[in-house]
Specification:
This protein is α+β, with helices and mostly antiparallel strands and 526 residues long. Helices cover 37% and strands 24% of the residues. The chain contains eleven helices and 18 strands. The strands form four sheets. The chain has a seven-stranded antiparallel β-sheet with strand order 8-7-6-5-12-3-16, with no helix packed on it. It has a six-stranded antiparallel β-sheet with strand order 11-10-9-4-15-17, with no helix packed on it. A three-stranded antiparallel β-sheet has the order 1-2-18, with no helix packed on it. Helix 5 packs antiparallel against helix 7, helix 5 runs antiparallel to helix 9 and helix 8 runs parallel beside helix 11. The protein is elongated, with a radius of gyration of 30 Å.
Length: 526
């Protein structure tokens, strides 16, 4: 007596798929939830994502919350080092000066010209954000509120304030002189520029509550750091030293000023904030009484750009978790080819493109929900662990799940896992071999991660922009500032493109692969 043949519970659903796309979706959902091993793969993918994330953050610790940092008015870690010639400005007034001759100086001393400072790095180039200009600053303490109109070496005239704000003026070439002016009326400061000192063009205007009462108005020079990067397989060498620049100032005038000119070094190693320069020889050409002088400066005035991204680290398990998610995507189609069930599926739904689209929607939706559970758990468990391990402000951000960038990273990582599973589904439909498809999806996502560690920085960035690996840019929650000199190192989790543009690259790969899979499924008999 032969045993009765059991009909899969989703077989009856297939027969009704002709009635509409909704029934087709229901049939594919029934398949996915009634195959036990696929549920186990989904559960293991979630568990692995959370476990790897927790292990990664548990092994990361910082003593004392990181090095001491200067903090700006809004709590952002900043760089505030400049050579300042200034007067007190008790009320309304202005500061005007002509700036010329801005350039980097080659350091002759091993410490870059400042005792106790880090070694200089001579790259033979003047960094584009080397700057000189007029400034009104709350006081001479590093990190205090300020507004400045500056001439930069490579980015023309700019108006900047409180470190994180930047407005572009004219694109002036490095060799061209420029008159700069900053006017204060109450707590409103307005910046101007001129080619001849007569016809003025407004650059910008801002209201700052931190610039009330008696402030300091003057001229300054600051030099962006010089950096040299050497990359090879097995490691990256980054040499960074303070830049050193000079600029010439003609006829600096403070309307409404008092107490005469003073020279102060702000934020430099070995000097106290608010004190006159301890070493007057640091600027031997600065004859303050002549009304025309050269002013040398070292350091920078900008946000401190780092890759200290707690959110990205708490989501690091997604790189490993995508492997079982990819395996599920491949199995969801190759299992039907291997067992011949694809003929039944296509008989119930003769429009093959709709069938594969339904599979992609069901798979992507289920993977997104599972991935979202995993990413939320990874962040909620990992963030307190990193806090206990010393990752605290201002060196490290203080993220919350309700923060916009954090929410985008957490939800975006779940969406990334869903898109990867759809890409795996498409590759499975194209290759029709489980092992080959899983291998290919892993190679496509993991091999670039290996290669970028040894490629020159430009080539590594190009690879990160052009491959599906770009999708992981969605995890980046660091605010990046154009006016802050920084090195974007792949091994530190820095992606050269924005979060959404990187995610769009991954989606484009999945869409193209799915389109090719539909085309092949239509043209080739199963």
């Amino acid at each position: 007596m032969t045993a009765p043949v059991k009909t899969p519970p989703y077989r009856s659903q297939l027969t009704s798929a002709r009635n509409g796309f909704g029934q087709l979706l229901h049939a594919e959902w029934t398949k996915l939830r009634t195959v036990p091993r696929w549920g186990l793969v989904l559960l293991s993918a979630m568990t692995l994502t959370v476990l790897i994330s927790v292990l990664a953050v548990s092994g990361s610790s910082v003593q004392g919350g990181g090095p001491a940092m200067t903090v700006g008015p809004d709590g952002t870690a900043v760089k505030d080092t400049m050579e300042l010639v200034h007067q007190q400005l008790p009320g309304d007034g202005s500061i005007t000066a002509r700036v010329s001759g801005l350039k980097s100086l080659k350091a002759s001393a091993p410490d870059g010209g400042r005792a106790g400072g880090p070694p200089a790095v001579n790259t033979g180039k003047t960094p584009g954000w080397t700057k000189a200009g007029v400034v009104i600053k709350a006081n001479t303490k590093a990190g205090s509120s300020y507004v400045a109109v500056i001439k930069t070496y490579g980015h023309g005239v700019r108006m900047q304030w409180d470190y994180v704000h930047d407005v572009a003026g004219n694109a002036v070439p490095p060799e061209e002189d420029r008159w700069l002016r900053l006017v204060r009326k109450g707590d409103v400061l307005t910046g101007y520029e001129s080619a001849d000192g007569r016809d003025w063009r407004q650059v910008g205007s801002v209201r700052l509550a931190g610039l009330t009462g008696t402030v300091e108005a003057g001229v300054f020079t600051a030099a962006a750091p010089n950096t040299k990067v050497e990359r090879r397989f097995g490691g990256t060498s980054v040499a960074e030293g303070p830049g050193r620049a000079t600029a010439h100032f003609d006829e600096p005038t403070v309307e409404g000023g008092r107490a005469g000119w003073q020279q102060t070094v702000i934020g430099a190693p070995g000097t106290a904030d608010g004190n006159p320069a301890a070493n007057p020889a640091a600027n031997p050409a600065a004859d303050l009484a002549s009304g025309s002088f050269d002013l040398e400066g070292s350091g920078d005035v900008a946000p401190l750009q780092t890759n200290n991204d707690i959110t990205r680290q708490t989501l690091s398990g997604a790189m490993i978790g995508l492997i079982p998610f990819s395996a599920l995507g491949v199995l969801f189609i190759t299992a039907e080819f291997r067992r011949g069930m694809i003929r039944t599926t296509l008989t119930a739904g003769p429009r093959r493109g709709r069938v594969l689209t339904a599979k992609a929607i069901v798979l992507g939706g289920v993977t997104f929900v599972a991935g979202l559970i995993a990413t939320v758990l990874s962040f909620m468990i990992g963030e307190p662990i990193m806090r206990r391990n010393g990752h605290k402000p201002p060196s490290w951000p203080d993220p919350a799940l309700t923060d916009g960038p954090v929410l985008r990273a957490v939800i975006g990582t779940a969406a990334l896992l869903a898109v990867v599973s759809v890409l795996a589904l498409a590759l499975g439909a194209l290759l029709r071999r489980t092992a080959a498809a899983i291998t290919l999806i892993v190679v496509v996502l993991v091999l670039p991660q290996i290669l970028i560690s040894g490629l020159p920085l430009g080539a590594a960035h190009a690879l990160m922009r052009a491959t599906p690996l770009a999708g992981f840019a969605i995890q980046d929650t660091i605010t990046r500032y154009d006016q802050a000199s920084a090195i974007c190192l792949p091994e530190e989790g820095c992606y050269p493109q924005g979060p959404w543009s990187g995610f769009a690259v991954l989606c484009a790969y999945a869409a193209v692969a799915l389109g090719l899979a539909i085309w092949r499924l239509r043209r080739r008999d199963v």
